Amino acid sequence: MSKLKFEYKILIAYLLVGGMWISFSDLLVQNIVSDPNYLTQVQTYKGWFYVLVTGILFYLLLKKHLIKIRNAEKKARESDHLKTAFLQNISHEIRTPMNGIVGFAGLLKENDLTQDEKDMYLDIITKSSDQLLNVVNDVLDVSLIDSGNVIINKTQFNLNEFMNQIYSVHGTILSKDISLQLNNTLSGLDYIVFTDKIKLGQIFDNLISNAIKYTPKGLIEFGCEMKEDQLLFFVKDSGIGIAPKYHEKIFDRFHRAEVETTKTIGGAGLGLAICKGNVELLGGEIWVESNLGDGSKFYFTMPGEFVISEIKEEQKEKFKTALKPGCLLVAEDEELNFSYISRILKDAGIDFLRAENGQEAVDICRNNANVKMVLMDVKMPILNGYEAVRMIRESQNDIPIIAQTAFAIGNEKKKALDVGCNDYIAKPFKRGELLDKIRQNLR
């Protein structure tokens, strides 16, 4: 039975209490008082007593209910204000790189450009595309975290190698006034951890990018240490800092530490919300220690149960990678996508064949013994990628298959692995990302 509305509850309570009061009080008074004049006076006092008591009760009930309504209205207005500010900020963050892409793509059509000008315009288009992709990814990530559709994919990997990769990636984008330092107390050991490497990398990427954004000059330090039974990660900077009153809010959706900084510092303001969501999905906690002008120190933990052990000497060979050129089958029906992939493979010296639909991919795998790996698009005519993988696995169970698709939302990676793929890469991907996937699966 659905709950009664508040006004119905008040009415029913009023009628029940009033009816019971009239019935029982009248019987009680008539048994005690026999004088008619005195009885009339008692009945008057009894009525006023009922009015006073019910008035107080209704006041307390209505006050409690009105406080809830007013708090809800206040939160709704605040949420509406934050969402409006967020949408305005998102619009700015999308339109700014789009302006660079559309504008400079149009300028490239002109015939009187020098090669240096063309190179500069292409560089601007590439950077604007990366900026736009980051905004789209942030919005999608927050939506997935909020809806509970994020799938954790845990794998074993070398933590020290992972930290060095983070250092290498971010060390190349620093300005001359900022230095990056890796302070890893686990550097003497080769720890193998079992967790979601992509999520952990995303947390570091957002925290270090934030540190770079809010540190005009100085030092950014990140690293990892063992603390009791947990791994404690940190990112510290000597930037502008964060006032204590914002320490909790900055991890919420649509919040930024200082509204006025949005005029000079870009970003959708979703990075820390994504960090918090991913950390909690991994079973840890995240917090900040900071004051205005004193820089910021972000910490997050990962439960120690995910730490397997230090790697044995004889196991190290398993983690070495080598790209072995061979015959790779590219199952891709879109011409533009195939042109992009084929260029990457040619530059890397990898021989490849093409299948334009799922059935053709199955036939090539069955009839060509030189195929050493398959890059399988999921959405294709005749047979989709998943159906094609199932049929390939019927006769060739050991060939590495990498699913590549624009379906990057939800549990698509898990679905790809469940049907028999060895790995998964989401579009759009960069040259290095594709080659890394190939290296990893040709070990």
UniProtKB/TrEMBL annotation:
Signal peptide: none annotated. It is found in: Cell membrane. InterPro entries: CheY-like_superfamily, HATPase_C_sf, HATPase_dom, His_kinase_dom, HisK_dim/P_dom, HisK_dim/P_sf, Sig_transdc_His_kin-like_C, Sig_transdc_resp-reg_receiver. The modification 4-aspartylphosphate is found at residue 377. Gene3D superfamilies: 1.10.287.130, 3.40.50.2300, Histidine kinase-like ATPase, C-terminal domain (3.30.565.10). SUPFAM superfamilies: ATPase domain of HSP90 chaperone/DNA topoisomerase II/histidine kinase, CheY-like, Homodimeric domain of signal transducing histidine kinase. GO terms for cellular component: plasma membrane. Its EC number is 2.7.13.3. The chain crosses the membrane at residues 12-33, 45-62. GO terms for molecular function: ATP binding; histidine phosphotransfer kinase activity; phosphorelay sensor kinase activity. Keywords: ATP-binding, Cell membrane, Kinase, Membrane, Nucleotide-binding, Phosphoprotein, Transferase, Transmembrane, Transmembrane helix, Two-component regulatory system. This is histidine kinase. Residues 327-442 form the Response regulatory domain. It is an enzyme of class 2 (transferase). It catalyses: ATP + protein L-histidine = ADP + protein N-phospho-L-histidine. Its main location: membrane. PANTHER family: OSMOSENSING HISTIDINE PROTEIN KINASE SLN1, TWO-COMPONENT HISTIDINE PROTEIN KINASE. Residues 89-306 form the Histidine kinase domain.
